[in-house]
Amino acid sequence: MPKPWSVLWLQSGGCGGCSMALSCAEPPGLYARLAAFGIELLWHPSLSEASGAEVIALLEAIAAGEHPLDCLCIEGALLRGPHGSGRFHVLGGTGVPTIDWVRRLAARARCTVAVGSCAVSGGFSACAPNPTEACGLQFEDARRGGALGADWRSPSGLPVIALGGCAVHPDWVLETLAALALGELDAGGLDAFGRPRAIYERLVHHGCPRNEYYEYKASAEKPSDLGCLMEHLGCRGTQAHADCNERVWNGGGSCTRAGFACIDCVAPGFQNPGHAFQRTPKLGGIPVGLPTDMPKAWFVALASLAKAATPARVRENAVADHPVVPPKMHVRKP
C-alpha cells in the first residue's frame, strides 16, 4: 500500500472556529474524505485522543527530522508578544512558545497551510491595537512578513498556502489537502496571497440570491430587508474573493443568504475596516467600496439607469422582510 500523506494540525491564537467548521464537512464526512485521498491526520488538538507526553514526543521527533511530515496545518494567529518573546502563547508542557514550535516544524514539513484568516494574516486576533502582536504565518494584514518571513519557502519550494476565511469552508481545507497529497497544487496555482486560485478567483457576489436587487440597485435599508446589502449595509460581496455563494455551507447557507453582509473575511486586514462592518462608507453619496473590476464613473451611470428601470415588484420587496409583490404572471397565447 502507498504510504499515507501525513498532516499535523496545531492551533494558535484564535477561537477554534475553523476546526468546528471542518467537523461539519459534507457527507461522507471528514474522516472518510481524508481516507479517500490517503491522508493521515497525525494529530489534531480537538479530534485526536493523544495528549501530553505522547504529543510532545511526536513534535520533537518531527522537529528533529526523525519523523517525516508532509503537511503542517496552522489554525489561529501566531502571537509574538510580549516584546517579540512569543511567551503570550507557550505550548502546554513544553515551556517553548508556540511560534517557535511552528518555525521548527514548518522547516521540516513538505508544505505548510494557514487555515483561516487568523493564520493567514492575523485576522480578528490582530485587531487594533493588537496587544498580543498577533500576525499570520507569512502576512501581517496585507504586508508580507509574518511569523515565517516574506521569503520563506517550504522544503518543497512552496510559500505558505493560505486558506483565508472566518471561518474557513471545510471544503476549501479538504480539497486543498487532497490537491497537495496528489501533487496537483504548485506555486502557479496560488494567487498573490498564496491562496489556491481554484477557490479564490471567484467572487462572493457570484451566485448571491440577492443579485436581482443588485442589478436594479434596489437596496435594503435595514438588516431584515430582502434587497441588496451593498449600498447601505456594508456588503463587500462584489469585492470578496471566494466562492461562498456557489459552494454553499451545510447544504445551503452563506452570509448573504442568511441576511448578513459579506465583510470580506477572506481578505488580509479585513478585521480593521475603519468603519462599522454593517455600514457602507460613502463619499458624496457614492459607496467607497465598488466592484473590483468596474470604473467608478461606469458604476454611477449604470446605477442611475438601473434605479430608473427598477420594477415595482423589486423596489417594494427590497425593503420588506418577505416577498410582498409576486412576479407578474404571463399567459402565453396559443
CA radius of gyration is 22 Å
| CATH fold naming of the largest domain | Rossmann fold
- The number of strands is 13
Q: Major sheet: order of its strands?
A: 2-1-3-7-11
The total domain count is: 2
Give the CATH class of the largest domain. Answer: Alpha Beta
- Amino- and carboxy-terminal Cα gap: 66 Å
The profile of the biggest β sheet is:
5 strands, parallel
- What is the overall silhouette? elongated
CATH architecture of the largest domain: 3-Layer(aba) Sandwich
Average pLDDT reading: 94
Q: Could you walk me through the main structural features you see in this protein, from its secondary elements to its overall organization?
A:
- The protein is built from 11 helices and 13 strands.
- With 334 residues, it is α/β, with parallel strands linked by helices.
- Strands 2-1-3-7-11 form a 5-stranded parallel beta sheet. It has a two-stranded antiparallel ribbon with strand order 4-8. Strands 5-6 form a two-stranded antiparallel sheet.
